[in-house]
């Protein structure tokens, strides 16, 4: 096992407290029903977020739906399928 393969729960309280979406007045925009204005708004907010890296790791780890770190559920699924499997 290498340091890069270290597993365990992330320090969620820390990174989520710094999330740009943490106190957004319209959290539903991160769960758009189509590819419209809401998705663009959410991705713009993610583009200014200081914890996007932690966010996308968590989304992939948990298989979460919606916009996380400027990626849609489908985009994360495609990237995950294309990425080589880690050998830990
Ligand atoms: S990257 Fe986007 S979804 Fe993730 S914590 Fe930041 S603002 Fe929220």
TrEMBL record:
<keyword id="KW-1015">Disulfide bond</keyword>
<keyword id="KW-0411">Iron-sulfur</keyword>
<dbReference type="InterPro" id="IPR003482">
    <property type="entry name" value="Whib"/>
</dbReference>
<dbReference type="GO" id="GO:0051539">
    <property type="term" value="F:4 iron, 4 sulfur cluster binding"/>
</dbReference>
<keyword id="KW-0479">Metal-binding</keyword>
<keyword id="KW-0238">DNA-binding</keyword>
<dbReference type="GO" id="GO:0003677">
    <property type="term" value="F:DNA binding"/>
</dbReference>
<protein>
    <submittedName>
        <fullName>WhiB family redox-sensing transcriptional regulator</fullName>
    </submittedName>
</protein>
<dbReference type="Pfam" id="PF02467">
    <property type="entry name" value="Whib"/>
</dbReference>
<dbReference type="InterPro" id="IPR034768">
    <property type="entry name" value="4FE4S_WBL"/>
</dbReference>
<feature type="domain" description="4Fe-4S Wbl-type">
    <location>
        <begin position="20"/>
        <end position="78"/>
    </location>
</feature>
<dbReference type="GO" id="GO:0047134">
    <property type="term" value="F:protein-disulfide reductase [NAD(P)H] activity"/>
</dbReference>
<keyword id="KW-0804">Transcription</keyword>
<feature type="region of interest" description="Disordered">
    <location>
        <begin position="67"/>
        <end position="88"/>
    </location>
</feature>
<dbReference type="GO" id="GO:0046872">
    <property type="term" value="F:metal ion binding"/>
</dbReference>
<comment type="similarity">
    <text>Belongs to the WhiB family.</text>
</comment>
<dbReference type="GO" id="GO:0045454">
    <property type="term" value="P:cell redox homeostasis"/>
</dbReference>
<keyword id="KW-0004">4Fe-4S</keyword>
<keyword id="KW-0408">Iron</keyword>
<dbReference type="GO" id="GO:0005737">
    <property type="term" value="C:cytoplasm"/>
</dbReference>
<keyword id="KW-0805">Transcription regulation</keyword>
<dbReference type="GO" id="GO:0045892">
    <property type="term" value="P:negative regulation of DNA-templated transcription"/>
</dbReference>
């Amino acid at each position: 096992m290498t340091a890069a393969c270290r597993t365990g729960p992330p320090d969620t309280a820390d990174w989520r407290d710094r999330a740009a979406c943490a106190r957004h007045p319209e959290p539903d925009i991160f769960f758009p029903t189509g590819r419209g204005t809401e998705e663009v708004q959410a991705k713009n907010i993610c583009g200014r977020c200081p914890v996007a890296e932690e966010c996308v790791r968590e989304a992939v780890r948990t298989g979460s739906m919606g916009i996380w770190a400027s990626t849609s559920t489908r985009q994360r699924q495609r990237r995950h399928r294309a990425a080589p499997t880690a050998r830990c």
